């Protein structure tokens, strides 16, 4: 068994809304080994996305500790976390979150701006990432010139361009038709199988979840 | 970070109409400031630069203007005999007694007449004030009632130019030349023979005497010599100081008024810029969340939005300076409160006023951009990522 790359130890998370405290995670523990492709399913508000946010250090647990890619995420400062995220975390978003005024290549290059790579090196990485997702011929296209599926592939290229330790995918097929969704899931599976990427994917879509090695069903802050 | 700069530039570009309106507003405010500075520069040039550092003006003690001053012929002779005065090529002292009177002329296109300075002087006045230069016709001949008119008088009062006539005192005078004076107050004067002008007004004293020093440093001996001669009772001023004193009240008034309006408008422009940048942040909340999720630091997000604000400011300042360049062709006239005569001057653009305008525009765009930029940098990432829209 591989070493866990993500580990939740008795993590609880609650939000205060007005005078009401809303509990999202309750005493939750989880261990994800390196190279695992895990799908997290559950109804809206069940705490799926919170898990991704906690792994990436975008949110902090109310209780418990989280280790990911070699650090105790829940105990780091903002600046250290941002630098760690740039190195170890790749994000795939439901709505792609591409910057419309930048080309596909420029969008993919964004995470590399946080590295020390020279411009020429960065461009090589960008070409490789876009090649991997099958968009070498769309390198200078703007997002508006791409289909939804192509936009998401650019989003995936952006997520993998810095060769992160963990790939976090939040409803990656949620905004795509069936054919495009299948192509995206096939791509994520390839990344997992060929590059041994650890992937945590949150999804509503059981067809998408079927591509994962393991599925975690989540409800009201707990694993069912 | 070329890419982040490109991101800012392109975002400014894609918000075309909002950007144009914000830049337009900022540019207008900056143009007001620039116009005020140009007014000040124009007045400075018309008044202060009328004086030469080598020239010394003598007035009766207690007189504050040439109009209110009087110097008798024998006093003028005493002064001209003093040592330490520059000489003409004919070895005559370059010290010219002058009579200054006001006449009433009707300005072209106006119903009410305005006062115009007539300076009775000598042909050597062109040596004393080398910035005054004939651009048409010739100088007056001594002992005649011929006059040379300043360029602004030719443009605003005596449109007939050379050959036209005007009444000064008891006599009819004939225009024989037109002079320009590099934008100084002499362009708003009429020059003729001093003795003829005195006769025309039945005057037996001059208004002032202007002499040229061999060097600006020779001022003190002349001042001492005149001050110690009990026959003279004259005050000695550097010509430039005299004109500076005359311009202080008017320039201060115009500047105060202008700066007050600029401040009020600047407040509006800052609000406009702030709203534009708040709009820019609001429409890109999810982008900001994404950048933060990728690992960009709050200060980098802050920099992106400040650069955008500064870009708006830079474009606005260029527009304002373009407008200022066009304003250089505008000539204004005002009442010179110390002589109660018409004074025409051109709005003058200087490198300093350009730099002040650029600094001001960048400053107000920066001030306007700071609150939205801070807001953008502090957006909670998880909430920003789930914001509807772009």
General description of the model:
The complex is a heterodimer of chains A (224) and B (390). With 224 residues, chain A is of the alpha/beta class. Chain A has a single domain (36-59, 78-223), classed as P-loop containing nucleotide triphosphate hydrolases (Rossmann fold, 3-Layer(aba) Sandwich). Helices cover 33% and strands 29% of the residues of chain A. Chain A contains seven helices and ten strands. In chain A, the strands form two sheets. A six-stranded mixed β-sheet of chain A has the order 6-7-8-3-9-10. A four-stranded antiparallel β-sheet of chain A has the order 2-1-4-5, covered by helices on one side. In chain A, a hairpin with a 2-residue loop joins strand 1 and strand 2 (20-33). In chain A, helix 4 (119-132) crosses helix 5 (148-160). In chain B, strands 1, 3, 4, 5, 6, 7, 8, 9, 11 and 12 form a ten-stranded mixed β-sheet that branches. Chain B has two domains: 2-48 and 246-385, no CATH class; 62-232, no CATH class. Chain B has helices at residues 2-14, 16-46, 73-80, 125-128, 151-156, 194-201, 219-228, 239-283, 285-294, 298-327, 351-378, 381-385; strands spanning 55-60, 71-72, 95-106, 113-121, 133-137, 146-150, 165-168, 171-180, 189-193, 205-206, 208-212, 234-238, 331-336, 341-346. The mean pLDDT of chain B is 87. In chain B, helix 1 packs across helix 10 (298-327) and helix 10 runs antiparallel to helix 11. Chains A and B meet through helix 2 of A and helix 1, helix 9 and helix 12 of B.
